[in-house]
Amino acid sequence: MDISTLIEFEQEVARRFEAKEIRGPIHLCSPDQAEPLIEIFKRIPRDAWVLSTWRSHWHALLHGVPPQLVMDEILAGRSMALNFPEYRFMTSAIM
Asked: Which of 3, 10, 33, 61 gives 20 to 30 Å between its CA and that of 43?
């Protein structure tokens, strides 16, 4: 996944939040965080578990969770509690 795709995803989340389509709080990454995250996730094997925190949209995407699955959870109000055990990815707003 490249920087522009990550940024576009967060912009879509922001747009949908402003349109009141998201039923819970969100925490967005800023564009300057994209490149370092991409570099970090290049080193994390897909079969490794990733345990993330409340700002996790990009973490999930970079670990291979399909964008639509991530967006569906965000739209359901679970932005800060994305859990996809089938992709070995879990997060919590409280760590």
From this structure: 10
